[in-house]
Amino acid sequence: MLAVGYKAWLPLNASQGGGAIDELIVIIHWFMAVLFIGWGAYFVWCLIKFRARPGHVATPELPKAKASKYCEVMVIVIEAILLLGFSIPIWAAMRGEGNGPKPDEALVVRVVAEQFAWNIHYPGRDGLFGRTDVSLVSKENPIGLDRSEPAAKDDLVTINQMHIPVNRDILVYLSSKDVIHNFGLPLLRVKQDIIPGMTIPVWFKATQTSNALRDQMVENYPLTGRAPMLLLKYHVAMEEYEDTDGTVIIAKGKVLTEDLVADLVAAGFETVRAAPRVPAEIACAQLCGLGHYRMRGYLTIDSAEDFEKWMVAEEAWLEDEEEDDEGY
Amino acid sequence: MSIMPDHDHHDHGHDGHHALGFIRTYIFTVDHKVIGIQYGLTSLLFLFFGFLLMLAMRWQLAYPGQPLPILQAIFGDQKVPGGIMAPEFYNQLGAMHGTIMIFLGVVPLGVGAFGNFVVPLQVGAVDMAFPRLNMTSYWVYFIGGVLMISSFFVPEGAAQSGWTSYPPLTQAAPFWGQTMWLTSMVFLITSSLLGSINIIVTVVQLRAPGLTYFRLPFFVWAQLITSFLLLLAFPPLEAAAVLQLMDRVAGTSFFLPSGLVFSGQVQDVAGGGNPLLWQHLFWFLAHPEVYVLILPGMGIVAEIIANNTRKPLWGYKSLVYSAIFLGFMSFVVWAHHMFITGMGQSMSTFFAATTMIISIPSVVILTALLLSLWGGSIRFNTPMLFALGFLPMFAIGGLTGLPLGLPASDIHLHDTYYVIGHFHYVVAPGSLFALFAGIYYWYPKATGRQFNEFLGKLHFWPTLLFMNGIFLPMLFMGMGGVSRRLYDQTEYAHGQAAQNWNVIMSWSAWLMGLTQLIFILNLVLTILAGRKVGANPWHATTLEWSAPSPPPHGNFLEPPKVYRDPYDYDPARKDGFIEQTQPEPS
Does A287 reside within a domain? Predict the structure, then answer.
């Protein structure tokens, strides 16, 4: 059973730049298919036509094979087109030094990776990042933010929860505390190594909200079998399910837990229509230790209003924290 | 023109000399054929061991979190608590699988075994240019191999940072495993350096009279170019391994930047180093290394195709020039493994261009081998089946390199299962098929006995099927974005989609493992009771088939002289061929 959002082919594309990458991948694969089928057909034909059998001898003369020279030239020309016409322009747009959005046009976020979590650092309303220092790093202050500094007063720091507004340029500065990680956003076709000792920028623009993505990723997940929770770790029910006497087992949009799955099975359901609660995820794409497989971050793509609401809620939480004089 | 090696008559004369005893004949031997077999047996054992590690990993991948008691029984409670392998143990298996297959398996088999056994015979020499150096290079390999395997038994286990060993992860990882990995690599690299010098000098200096460069079998060209790659590309990695060792034991910071915090502890390192320096030094070897993995295989396939089509290879000169160009280009593509490290436009364009260019000689070589089938009279014996199987499998491997070699498409595919599928297609049903083909082809020469053809075919067909069962789904998984080196792919929503594929892939792997037992059975039965054969059971043209099967110490009954091209197959002649040593005009 394959999830709709993440198929065993290209996943949904939720970014502005991703379409060009997908187009290039598809074109290359057509090219590969033509070559493979061409070679393959010729190969099979040879094996049949020139198999050893009574009365058949080899002809020692070598074929002229002009066709293969033309093919070779075509291959070179097509590769040149793919490189010059597609890959170089895409790379320039997505990676070219100075081709990213200007910091004052984009939402700028710092992501500080560590074994095995993503620290997301927002500059707050003042647009300035507070100073960070390795000497201030502690369990409560994973990025070593100097809260006493004015610029740091309104900074927001979350662990693994990244919110971005849709249709807005996002400029992310990546850094790592320990080993090489990779900031991967599969649905946005973003992938960037984070090399300790360097700060590396990456930019993108999301074109669909999490809610829109979730609606496209609804699938029937099996409730029976070896381990249904294996595939339902992050999922919410996308329909309401009632049992035989009308009581609601699980409402639409609620998280599926092991108990709720057991209740559904007890009520006779064999599948559940579900989708990931947070469809877009941050995936670490470079081996970073024993927790590499579970270094999952949650990327929520909000509408502009929802993003504002989220910011306000985070700021309120920050104020409460300051008043309590706990945390950082 | 050739120069006979300067033999000390005390250690081996050629006629009725004193017997050397068991140790000098079979253990500390200087005879290239025995050394070749030593390399062959050792590397096959390591290959099988590396394969077993993967079979264990495939349980965790297919059935994450499900206990398998036998794993706990073998590996112990710390590595496999409650029958479920620990994530760090999974990473150890992964790192060691790659390392063992490449450095203890395919290279020693392709170069150490086949290079040593066949090259002196095919150039008409009595032995390699430096027989004692040859013996040394085998034993240094052996020590390196033992060290590598022993690293499983040290505190906290073997290296677990990938075969690529990127710092600073290596620094954060446990001390002993990675340190032993680095030490072992120093031995393994040294062995390859010694061996490569030997092959180069042998080919340059010891060719029989009349054996000009363009009469060399393509296999010898492949080995010659491979040896240049080893000689020139390995030293930076050996140096880098020493530098990383110094970072671990001597407080240096070649690869460690300042301000590192491991598990909340600020690291007391000198700082100022750069992890990217390791990557450049590593990939400077590791890219030519992949051509070291494939070139001997291409050489083997060429020999077997010529022999079993009963006609000369198409485009011998194109093959040779392409292989030389391939070898040269392999030194200037390495950073295509590093596109995603933060590379800008100029670097990525340069390496993308060289990577596109290097695809051309590969295409030429594949096309030449395919065109060699035209007009032949194709015999489908076991070596030929494996050689033919190599062609489409290598094609898939090579073609899937294209989206990886273009930086923009690499953004999505980097470090995903697409990469694993790509390189395994080239090395597993690619190189390994070619190496199997070579074992079946030269087994009669080495042992004087013919293997069982039915068992050979029974080995081939299921292996071909299962290879595709394992690696084809990986291309789709990678397309879906599933990262590599994940202990449990279901922890990512985008990885969950792949779970059904994982079950298919694991069963294919386990069944393929069972199939290899047929191969082992065939090898053993042949030694014990195989039909005896003469010098040239395949009716082949190259020089090794003029020597007896197996060749005695000194190889040839009389010093060979070469009069013709390597693949003079002609249906008008008796048995359809003319040996290179035959002076008659064609």
Answer: no
